[in-house]
From TrEMBL:
Peptidase S1 domain ranges (all copies): 32-273
Listed GO MF terms: serine-type endopeptidase activity
Pfam families associated with the record: Trypsin
Keyword Hydrolase: yes
SMART domains, per the entry: Tryp_SPc
Tagged with keyword Repeat: no
InterPro entries listed in its UniProt record: Peptidase_S1, Peptidase_S1_PA, Peptidase_S1_PA_chymotrypsin, Peptidase_S1A, Trypsin_dom, TRYPSIN_HIS
Endpoints of the signal sequence: 1-19
Any single biological process term in GO: proteolysis
Protein name, as recorded: Serine protease
Family: Belongs to the peptidase S1 family.
Amino acid sequence: MVTSALAVGLAAAGTTAQAAAGTAASQYQAKIIGGHRSTEHYSFIVSLQAPRGDDPDGHGCGGTLIAPDWVLTAGHCVTTAEGVEAPGTFHARIGSLDRTRGGEVARVKRIVVHPGYRYADERGSAHDLALLQLSSKVSAKPAPLASRTPRAGETVRATGWGYTEATGNDPSRLPVEHREVDLPVLAPDTPKCVSHGTDGDAWGIREGDFCTDNPDGAAGTCGGDSGAPALTKAHGRWQLSGVTSRSVGDCASTPDIYPSVAAHRAWIRTTTG
């Protein structure tokens, strides 16, 4: 199954690491495959949720708390072909490794999608980012923003609540506990970061993105991981370096693509004040 968009739900070929079925990003998919349950607490992690069926707290995408009342996620998590979803559709569970309980819960009151992002269900876009303003400030500690894009040969930690098997498309089987996997960064001009044998460059790297490899051809992100943080460490502290967007082709066996936080830092700072 090709899953270039990494949301929860059945993705089209060349999917983004998107949201759960029944939410705005239902055509995308993403998951942590080849990783493990998180072994440390991340105060800033977010499960972006919306009602789905009988579940009022259906997980759709990940996100990162970057200020007391702002969350950064992927643009495709909150948009459709018709435009930006209504903010009231979503709420955020913040700071809990268990997406069903704990942490702090806040409604979303405003959504700002990066002006350079263009929604398309058959192709990934550059600048796949959105900022969500919460209805109230929370007490959890936000993630610091990285000041530079990860370089080839470095390692980033991909995180999320996405499916743990490449065949996953049933939201009831999403892991409840937060997961993570460490992935090596590739040079942006690496051919497999640019295109895929089936989908060409539809889901490849764009301006402002970085790309990670898949150790042993069986590790990476897929359904439900869209919007979740890609982390690096600086001075012993985790910082937000990227936002999970999509896979170039088959999830966990082709490179994963992330908008660089450093490359979009000016927009983030201007929007959040």
